[in-house]
């Protein structure tokens, strides 16, 4: 207990790193000092979901770096790259509170040379759902994540369940390219009404924000069916779509039941599955998912090689 009038210690600001070389040198110093290194890649506009990633990283490793980079390569034509929230000062304060020691904040020209022409593509998990809705998106994601992993040389890397297809793709890339890093998936953090935290929630009008929790409710209904023993993916999918039908201003892009290991629609639910959905509320696009059974998500959170 602090004495009256005593100054309250402020969290230490993370070291600011601007180049891949600086990040690599920082990481190697940590490892030489006997610390495990964890990386939390972000695009900034940080919220409690990112904070949960960072806190999980801090609990698992002695040194934590977070990247803050709005990656132009993962935005398609007409998407929100220019208006994506950029809140660096607040982001750095959150990093400090969450125990992050280094923030990698590169300029686009540091990450991509003007004649950059090498890309990472995956040919199975990247095809359905987000891959179909956003062509080229995962090429940009995998390329920048591979570059971040090479720069940071982490022992662990942390990603959020909300972007489950992205997390599974990164796990596949790490496996296929023999990268010496353990990928962990942290469960989605939600508002009190169930809405998954997202930087894009700030785009919602009050009316759209009131409608947004229907996405989580629909997915919860699917999860309850699965927990009750339903094995027909069509029945589960119909239940979710039925809950979303008629919600004002809400348009469903997809709602799919997919095997967790392949992201393909199974003829029957016999192993771990993800129920994933994307909707639009006005011009704002939201994604969310549930994983069944809970043990499969727990395995992803532990970084196990198979869900």
How would you describe what is shown here?
The structure is a single chain. The chain has 307 residues and is of the alpha/beta class. 37% of the residues lie in helices and 18% in strands. It contains eleven helices and nine strands. The chain has a six-stranded parallel beta sheet, sandwiched between helices. Strand 3 (63-68), helix 3 (88-97) and strand 4 form a beta-alpha-beta unit. Helix 1 packs across helix 6, helix 6 crosses helix 7 and helix 9 (213-227) packs antiparallel against helix 10 (233-244). The longest helix is centred in the middle third of the chain and has 16 residues, at 137-152. The radius of gyration is 20 Å and the shape is globular.
Strand-helix topology:
Blueprint: E1 15-17, H1 20-32, E2 37-42, H2 48-60, E3 63-68, H3 88-97, E4 102-104, H4 108-111, H5 130-133, H6 137-152, E5 156-160, H7 164-176, E6 182-186, H8 206-211, H9 213-227, H10 233-244, E7 250-259, E8 273-281, E9 284-292, H11 294-301
Helix pairs in contact: 1-6, 6-7, 9-10
Q: Give the overall form.
A: globular
Number of helices: 11
Average pLDDT score: 96
| Beta-strand proportion | 15-25%
Q: Within the largest sheet, what's the order of strands?
A: 1-4-3-2-5-6
Q: Tell me how many strands there are.
A: 9
Taking the sheet with the most strands, its summary is: 6 strands, parallel
Stretches where pLDDT falls below 50 for ≥5 residues?
Answer: none
Tell me the distance between the termini.
Answer: 44 Å
Based on CA atoms alone, the radius of gyration comes out at 20 Å
**Helix/sheet category:** alpha/beta
Along the chain, the helix and strand elements come as: EHEHEHEHHHEHEHHHEEEH
Helix percentage: 25-40%
């Amino acid at each position: 207990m602090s004495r009256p009038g005593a100054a309250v210690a402020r969290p230490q600001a993370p070291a600011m790193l601007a180049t891949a070389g600086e990040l690599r040198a920082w990481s190697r110093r940590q490892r030489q000092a006997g610390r495990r290194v964890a990386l939390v890649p972000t695009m900034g506009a940080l919220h409690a979901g990112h904070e949960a990633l960072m806190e999980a990283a801090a609990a698992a490793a002695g040194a934590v770096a977070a990247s803050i980079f709005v990656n132009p390569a993962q935005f398609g034509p007409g998407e929100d790259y220019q208006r994506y929230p950029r809140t660096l000062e607040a982001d750095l304060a959150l990093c400090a509170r969450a125990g992050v020691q280094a923030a990698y904040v590169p300029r686009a020209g540091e990450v991509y040379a003007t004649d950059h022409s090498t890309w990472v593509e995956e040919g199975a998990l990247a095809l359905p759902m987000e891959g179909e809705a956003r062509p080229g998106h995962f090429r940009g994601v995998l390329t920048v994540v591979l570059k971040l992993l090479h720069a940071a040389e982490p022992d662990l890397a942390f990603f959020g369940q909300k972007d489950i297809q992205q997390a599974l793709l990164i796990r596949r890339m790490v496996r296929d390219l023999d990268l010496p890093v353990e990928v962990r998936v942290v469960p989605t953090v939600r508002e009190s009404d169930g809405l998954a935290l997202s930087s894009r929630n700030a785009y919602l009008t009050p009316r759209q924000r009131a409608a947004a929790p229907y996405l989580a409710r629909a997915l919860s209904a699917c999860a309850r069916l699965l927990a009750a023993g339903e094995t027909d993916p069509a029945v589960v999918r119909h239940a979710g779509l039925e809950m979303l039908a008629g919600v004002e201003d809400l348009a469903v892009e997809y709602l799919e039941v997919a095997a967790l290991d392949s992201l393909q629609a199974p003829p029957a639910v016999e192993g771990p599955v993800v129920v994933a959905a994307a909707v639009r509320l006005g011009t704002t696009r939201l994604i969310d998912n549930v994983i069944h059974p809970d043990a499969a998500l727990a395995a992803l959170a532990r970084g196990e090689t198979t869900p």
